[in-house]
Amino acid sequence: MAIDAQDLRVDYQADVLLEKDAPDAPFPLFDQWFKEAKDSDDPEPNAVVVATVNADGHPAARTVLLKEVTDRGFIFYTNYDSRKGHEIDAHPHVAMVFNWLELQRSVRIEGRVEKLDEAASTEYFQSRPKKSQIGAWTSPQSDEIPDREFLDNRKEEIEQRFADTEALPKPAHWGGYVVIPHLIEFWQGRSSRLHDRLAYTRTDADGTEWTRVRLAP
Question: Regarding beta strands 47-53 and 93-100, do their DSSP bridges make them parallel or antiparallel, or are they unpaired?
């Protein structure tokens, strides 16, 4: 197999990112960009790549869905027994990337990870559609399984088990993480590959003080 992508290129001209238009802290700018991504043609603007490392320092990346941004950081939910869950337990630092191609933008985040408390995770879990709750009970995420039938059979068992229950109990292996950022970088595509990159670095423990610099593309 041969793939030649040398001639695939776009001359980015959708927008600019200048210091005079950027706030002193990153969260207001993220809020603005996220709202603009929601209003664009992006089918899932909350899709974000999360990268972790294993005990040998080997990286792994996968896409999850952002569910909330608070003053503390960026929240997503997953199976704690998955590969990413085990790697976060061992090395509670991740990198995240939002990629909004329609707007020719991306946001890169680095930060420390903490589990949400059980009450918050349970509240969100039981707010999900019942099919999603059943899916969380069904899948031993990241484990090797024999075939698709294995999942279908487990799903049927869970559906029967909770046939009369609308809000399922949260599985012990499922819950939320908050990524507490120390770096947030905003990338705006520009013509001739001379893109705008503004990086915010946290300078205090509670995340209210940030420095902002421009990075070369």
Answer: antiparallel
Kindly indicate whether the domain formed by 19-129+172-214 is annotated with CATH number 2.30.110.10: yes
pLDDT at position 215: 98
193 carries an active-site annotation: yes
pTM of the model: 0.94
- Domain limits, the chain: 19-129+172-214
Distances from the Cα of 124 to the Cα of 18, 39, 130, 211, angstroms: 37, 24, 12, 34
Kindly name the residue from 72, 83, 105, 193 that is annotated as catalytic. Answer: 193
- Sequence-ordered list of residues with C-beta below 8 angstroms from that of 85, at least 6 positions apart, any chain: 78, 79
Residues 217 and 200: their CA atoms lie apart, in Å, by 16
Residue 213 dihedral angles phi and psi, to the nearest 5°: -135, 160
